From TrEMBL:
GO cellular component, one term: COPII-coated ER to Golgi transport vesicle
The keyword Transmembrane belongs to this UniProt entry's keyword annotation: yes
Chief location: membrane
PANTHER family linked to this entry: VESICULAR MANNOSE-BINDING LECTIN, VIP36-LIKE PROTEIN
UniProt keyword list: Membrane, Signal, Transmembrane, Transmembrane helix
Subcellular location(s) per record: Membrane
Transmembrane parts of this sequence: 110-134
Name listed for the protein in its UniProt record: LMA2L protein
Membrane topology: Single-pass type I membrane protein
PROSITE patterns, per the entry: L_LECTIN_LIKE
A Pfam family assignment: Lectin_leg-like
Record keyword Signal present: yes
Species per Swiss-Prot/TrEMBL record: Eudromia elegans
Molecular function, one GO term: D-mannose binding
């Protein structure tokens, strides 16, 4: 939607009171359209902004003309201030992040026994097959008289 346009496209990212809002102007009309609005976002302090057009295996060429950052002054209660200082990892309330699933329950004793038992049976079977194949190979190599 933003490729090969004759006008500049704009993006606004706003983070105020644990709400992340992204708005775009890709039509060149100087009118903002909502892109996303996510409440309950908790970001840690002391990080930096960066830009990239890399999207996994693909990349694209974008010219960043300007990047303007503003610190908004928002009245906070001491409780909100303390809560914001305690954030060390980015988190979104009521959103399950990939890779942070609940730990799996441990296996039952019967399941563990069956896994070990069938693993040993398969190992013994593989050893028996290996010995049979090795003996057949040795018999064939002894039969050659030159």
């Amino acid at each position: 939607m933003v490729r090969n346009l004759n006008h500049d496209t704009f993006l606004v990212i706003r983070y105020v009171k644990r709400r992340l809002t992204v708005m775009i102007d890709i039509d060149g009309k100087h009118e903002w359209r909502d892109c996303i609005d996510v409440p309950g976002v908790r970001l840690p302090r002391g990080y930096y902004f960066g830009t990239s057009s890399v999207t996994g295996d693909l990349s694209d060429n974008h010219d960043i003309i300007s990047l303007k950052l503003y610190q908004l002054t928002v009245e906070r209660t001491p409780e909100e201030e303390k809560r914001d200082r305690e954030v060390f990892l980015p988190v979104v309330d009521n959103l399950k992040l990939p890779g942070l699933e609940a730990p799996l329950e441990p296996m039952s004793g019967l399941a563990l026994f069956l896994i070990v038992f069938f693993s040993l049976v398969a190992l013994v079977f593989a050893i028996v097959i290996g010995v049979i194949v090795y003996n057949k190979w040795q018999e064939q190599s002894r039969k050659h008289f030159y």
